[in-house]
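ABC-type xenobiotic transporter (Rehmannia glutinosa), 1211 aa
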Amino acid sequence: MVDAHYIITNHVQLTVQEYADIISLLASICLLGLSIRGKTGIAFSISDDITEPLLNGNNEKLSEVKRDSPYGKATLIQLVTFSWLNPLIEFGFRKPLDQDEVPDVDIKDSAGFLSKDFDQCLKYVKERDGTETPSIHKAIYNFARKKAAINALFAITSAGTSYVGPYLISYFVDFLNEKKFRSLESGYLLALGFLGAKLVETITQSQWTFGAFQLGLRLRAALISQIYKKGLILSSQSRQSRTSGEIINCMSVDVQRITDIIWYLNTIWMLPVQISLAIYILHMNLGMGALVALAATLTVMAFNIPLTRIQKGYQTKIMEAKDDRMKTTSEVLRNMKILKLQAWDSHYFQKLVSLRKTEQNWLWKSLKLTVLTAFIFWGSPTFISVVTFGGCVWMGIPLTAGRVLSALATFRMLQDPIFSLPDLLNVMAQGKVSVDRISSYLQEDEVKSDAIEFVPNDRTELHVEIDGGKFSWDMESRNPTLDHIQLKVKRGMKVAICGTVGSGKSSLLSCILGEMQKFSGTVKISGSKAYVPQSPWILSGNIRENILFGKPYESGKYDRTIEACALIKDFELFAAGDLTEIGERGINMSGGQKQRIQIARAVYQDADIYLLDDPFSAVDAHTGTQLFQVMQNGRVAQAGTFEELLKQNIGFEVLVGAHSQALESVLTVESSSRTSDYAAVENETQTETIVNEEFLHTKQDSEHNLCVEITEKEGRLVQDEEREKGSIGKEVYMSYLTIVKGGALVPIILLAQSSFQVLQIASNYWMAWACPTGDDEPVAGMHFILLVYTLLTVGSAFCVLLRASLVTIAGLLTSEKLFSNMLNSILRAPMVFFDSTPTGRILNRASTDQSVLDLEMANSLGWCAFSIIQLLGTIAVMSQVAWEVLVIFIPVTAICIWYQRYYIPTARESARLAGIQRAPILHHFAESLSGAATIRAFDQQERFTNANLCLIDNHSRPYFHNVSAMEWLSFRLNQLSYFVFAFSLVLLVTLPEGIISPSKHKIRYAEHLPSVLRNITCTFPGRKKVGVVGRTGSGKSTLIQAIFRIVEPREGSIIIDNVDISKIGLHDLRSRLSIIPQDPTMFEGTVRGNLDPLEQYSDAEIWEALDKCQLGDILRQKPDKLESTVVENGENWSVGQRQLFCLGRALLKKSTILVLDEATASVDSATDGVIQKIISQEFKDRTVVTIAHRIHTVIDSDLVLVLSDGKNTSH
């Protein structure tokens, strides 16, 4: 960088060594990235048997976790360019992607790997700190630190290289202004610096952006798996202290906020780099004016902090209002049938509308503040630039075009850090709260693993033994729920536990399962368990999956199970039999059917111990030979056989009598309708008759048994969520844009944004044009220039305010209209819609999707339109500066459009899949929470945990590849844009200057005289040597006088570098042209006065020019040096020396165009040769027009113009 700075500032030409150094630098950058990654991606295939695993079991285990991931197999170049995604992009372009067509994530991004990794981090923190409750904050730090450090390195590099452009702008502007005497190599070096910095910036930016998404995905998967595993082992007390909604919010909202921190985490490292570099560049260009810029920047940042706090308060109120609305919405959806039966739907409709109005009020306040924030965001460069330039004018710091353009680019770059700080503080505060919430949840009490002692079957004949048991649901309670429990159950024994409500029957089963907190005593279990809870717990899925519950399907055993549980006739009623899908919470099953399904689940497990919590409504008459226990006040009040307890007359007979009376009354009422049923089963035992009658009854009284009506789609009541495929139709956009006032606000918004763009371009152009270049004077006073700039920029800022206000108004009114339509549709839908649509799907529309409409949709569409307008403005500016760029811009635009169409199908479908796969994670978690006791009883924690990991991966797969696809497109579009950018710079560097184009030029010296030049039309290309020859009187000298406007044309024009010379001032024209006349002229005075009469150049520059024209040594021998005397007409100098002095004037002036008017006609051949040699060396990059009679004078010219009688005969 030091060498590059030296080369640029001192205009040194590049050597072969410098070019080699540049190539070596690029190679070193690649090697640096390779060393950071730690691998090359090159795989060596070794077929040696030594590398084969010794144990097949381990090999099989490894093959289970190995995933086919293109990302995992990518090479370094593929990782940098994201070309590993090419096959998926191409596949998605050919057909819409389905979930099973999305590749797996890499093993390091899989939920199973990440869950184990986070467990290791927790274990490490636990051992290091010597605590039983490791800090989640420290575990997250250890989990993410390596990847976060790599991302930070990329982010800092990206931030640093992004300021190379503003740093080089002033140098580039200086080069363009001094291009006439600067070598092209320095211009190419500047262009290479711009391009190299942009390449490094885009590579590092894409890598840290992708890395942040990837780390967020990893942290999200790890935290969700931890929250899920914790939910399966929460103690009863901990479970009661937290609602299901609160726990699910930890998994959805809090985890999302923590992953948001990962994105903003890099802002911590980038902010100081960005601000420091910005102030350095400003100080380099504006001196002490940088301090004014720093003060203005800090003022804007400080002003944003209270706005962020207010916005945070509004967001809290919005979330509270949304929670109230969603709570009522959820309640309405759960009880929709009651609302319709009671005709209360209108009342609750108004209630929801009222809650939505409260939410809308807070939304409107928040969005008004967002409008103000947008105004500040786009107005901050205006404010900072006006204050800074005003400070520079006040302090007398000169403002040149290069300095102004560099400062403006820097002010624009400062927008991001200015607004990143408040967002960073806000996200960090929210993330801290979320981490604390998750930490609190993960540190809740768990079910004690030592609450039950498991004894092998061959060591005892007892399956259940409780000795001196004292249990409680609340450890802080002084009164235990169960006390003095003594229970021994032998193998094969049936035990019935009876008691009044609240006597502790279900609690006794819970203590056997290890669900209760144990104060004292022992609980020993021998054999496997199966549990049937009092409230049926049915999983979403088909009936067979609920019965098998993780066990392999055995047809004989399965048939015996469903026959024993009287499910055969139920299956006959279902369209798909036992493959019928069960709706959410078993909505399409009766209570009896759900109970029998979970009984069948327990039976199929073939367990040693069955714990049934009130599974039947009728009593088995044959239990009289078995042991009974009577619970009373949490204790075993009575124990014995059926007959023994009846004879004791201490309470059991009361329970039996009450139940017998109830059963007798029911049977009496229904005896007439069941005569045929009794006859059909009269040969069966009494027990089978009672049980079958009860099952038949529960089957017939189902209120929601819709399976009889389902004849399509394999008997599925609840269908998969519909997913649109293909592009989004124009009708969708048009319907959204025209909901409010028929779309009347849209053209006003576009006009406001277009006005903003025009005023922005005008303000920048004004400063670049009005401010001087080099030592020139400004076109007007600096106060006037600053006033015009302020008016233009303030006008553009108010255009932004108008645009942001209209977008906010239109967006909020549109979302409100769509919400009202949705609410009307939902509350007027028939009941079959609610029976077949999961509540979560409807709630997702009313919460997540509605939030997108409220806060994001309008801005997203607006940004799309605004970006197009900004692009058009950029094209317009570039076409004015260098229209040749359009030659490359048109094909590049076509390539961009093709890339977009090639990319969108894959990105769109993967985004849809990711959205669809998010809901099953929460749904599965909610189901697992409600059935956690059953899952633990069946020892199914591992299976359910693995299912959760699979669901996480199902979401991670499309999400990961969607993010990758965005970076894939971004990388390619950036490269194309930088290619156009580099092409534009090269054009500006190599664009020839000094193009002279006379067009139909006619000149006469007087009205009565004939034309000397007649319709001269030709073009002298820039940076070429053009010879003009012709006979005496052919018009050669007149053409030169026309170029200098010594003689004004009668018709036609002369265009120099796209400027009509007749429309500019004579001084502006002649001061930019150089001429060596035929008769060398010198004025009385000194040598210095003759070379630099305006005193514009230093002594060193004059000596350099004298050395080049071979007069330096002659003057050094004279005592007065540059002050040597020149007498009238320069008579004390020879004609040849006088001609060389005229050449020295041209060398000092460094004009783009040099005219030689018979310059060597009066000198000898030796001096002629010297002059021609000097001209060919020093003016090789300029336009030289030579008028000569001698052939050898123009023999080396690139073009020759032949004049005859004032006409160009050949050219």
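The mean pLDDT is 77. The longest helix spans residues 345-395. ok done for today
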